[in-house]
Amino acid sequence: MTVQHVPMNRRTVLRGAFAAAIGIPTAGALASCATGGAGDDDPTDGGNTGEASDTNPFGMAENTVVDAVIFDGGYGIDYVEFAAAILAETHSGSSVEVQSSTQIATELQPRFVGGNPPDLIDNSGAQSMGFNTILDQLEDLTDVIDAPNLEGTTIRDTLYGGVLAPGTFDGKLAAINYVLTVYALWYSASLFEENSWTPPTTWAEAKELGAAAAEQGKYLFLFGTEAATYYQTLCIDSAIIEGGDEVRLALENLEEGCWSHPAIQSVFTAFKEIIDLGYMKPGGSGTQFTAAQAQWSNGQEALLYPSGSWIENEMKDQTAEGFEMTGTNTFPVTADSTFPATALHSTAGEPFIVPSDAASVEGGKELLRTMLSKESAENFSKTKLAPTVIKDLVPEDGFGSTALVSQTDMLSAAGDDIFTYNFVATYGMNQEQLVFWNSFLDGQSTVEKLTADLQGLTDRIREDDSITKIEVQ
Q1: Residue 472 falls within a domain, yes or no?
Q2: Torsion (CA) 175, 181, 184, 187 in degrees, nearest 10
């Protein structure tokens, strides 16, 4: 996800006030969060450890102040505050300071260099830290998933299959991704029904829908400057469905000529035709991304928008009444694609990491354990209308969300045909790619130029021996 930059906001979770706001009974006021000595009456920054037990499996010290920095994107940070309040209740005298950030790398890399990183980080957003640059500075989190949750069940046994893969690098579980993200094309089911439109299943059908939209003064697509690479995700997903795993692996492993793969080129060419026909709303490179998204979700100026499943929560205050936000699968180029049309890009997102040099590694892991327990995970799905990596917590009615129901339908239809890829995040490529895609979407670039720009960046990273490479098989 990409978001507008706002200053880091330090929030101290006070058990009484926050619990009252979310309806959790309080057992007493939380101890002061001011940093003090390691005595019995004052919280500590966690420089020492406590005794490990079934209810404290990592040995978090008493009176610990856990320092958490959370990416403030489509899901906000209140879901971590919710878990923080539970931790304060289960560990009397301890507390959590939750800080929000939209510039994770900029604000936290100096802390890594200085040896004082936070205890828990949500390493997400356009400004996330590349895992290849920090892998050796992170804890292996296998002990977290092998620990019991607050209900006493081993966390590993509560997870959806495959959700640990995106956070595993060279055999090390360096991140636990919290949200099960579905990447799809989103639309208003009510608008489509009103106009007897159906979601496209190929790029040719998308072009036809674009023509129908134009007849009503609408566009097929629109975009905002910080989210231009959402369309890169759309194109890669389409190319993988069209051409199969060889497309995905070539990109993941930074292969020479990977962006020239026939499947990718066929997608780029089909998309360029749609742009040239005027079915992409112009001016997106000068429009802030949530403002652009509101033009879709509130103004209904465009029919389709590619995004991860955070989109409903991100735009909940800027969505037209009766919109009925619904997801549909990314479409391939042809009807005889390598993967079936039901294939789906879905992955565990929002990667949470615990730095090895954190003041309280134990506290970071304990907060993460709390987040992975039923109460916290269920609260997330209910308030954010998105599934977590904890299975069997979303009811059939999706808590009243058409978007959440469509996600579960797509996941069910996909079966084993679910794929993901990490190379953009692994090598921190998004910022440079945004420049290429803003130009392409605004009609100022060609397929050849886009391909050359993307390949040039890929080649530069591959040939740079100072950059650690992670092979994907």
Answers
A1: no
A2: -140
